[in-house]
Amino acid sequence: WCPRAIIYDPLKAGSIDGTDSQPHDRAIMRAQNADYKPNKNVKGDPECTIFVARLHPKTTVRHLKEVFSRFGDIVRCRVVEDLVTGRSRGYAFVEFTSSTSALMAYKRGNKTIIDGSEVFVDMECERLLPGWVPRRLGGGFNGKKESGQLRFGGRERPFRKPIKLLSKKELIISLSDKLYKPKDQILKESSVIAARFSEISKR
What pLDDT, on a 0 to 100 scale, did the predictor assign at position 171? Predict the structure, then answer.
């Protein structure tokens, strides 16, 4: 078990503990069927690049450089803009001269307040995470609860550890310790309850 996704699987990303065997929303199915390939025209070293999201609409490249240059020398910085309106889409990519600087920015730059907005910082996933599918195709990470399309395995919403189901023997021992009852008595009582439920279900 690992809290972070090592390989991106849309089905697992849609599950809080990464154990779902069936998609629970249409977006997951869309992500599973997506034939997405990383943009070959993207420049720079992905190991030295961070992803910065939740930017204020007015945040500029210049201001981003001022904020993140404290972690190291910056090669390039790009605020992603809408192709039609030219307005910021609220996220950017910052490439440093070294992976050490990028890692430092990842660790210390998250939740920095820039122009009144608390930003989210992660490493670039598109070229680093095998199988990556972006949010617009039903993949990605995080998301809002009200959308019903949360994605897990990322920095903000890591996978939860799967619940271990106890065997009958382990359950009896556990109950015996908690209720201070002999194991034989608990076994007898549980058998009576099980028989009673079975009888009710047949009615």
Answer: 58
Paired tokens of 39: 């943009």
Both 105 and 50 in one domain: the answer is: yes
> Residue 102 and residue 48: Cα distance in Å, rounded?
5
CA dihedral 4, 6, 10, 11 (to 10 degrees): -80
pLDDT level of residue 79 (50, 70, 90 thresholds): very high
Burial of 155 (0-12, 13-18, 19+ CB in 10 A): middle
d(CA 96, CA 104): 10
* Same domain (yes/no): 43, 113: yes
* 173 plus 137 within the same structural domain: no
Give how many domains the chain has, as a whole number. Answer: 2
Write out the residue range of the structural domain in which residue 179 sits.
168-201
**Euclidean distance between CA atoms 35 and 188, whole angstroms:** 56
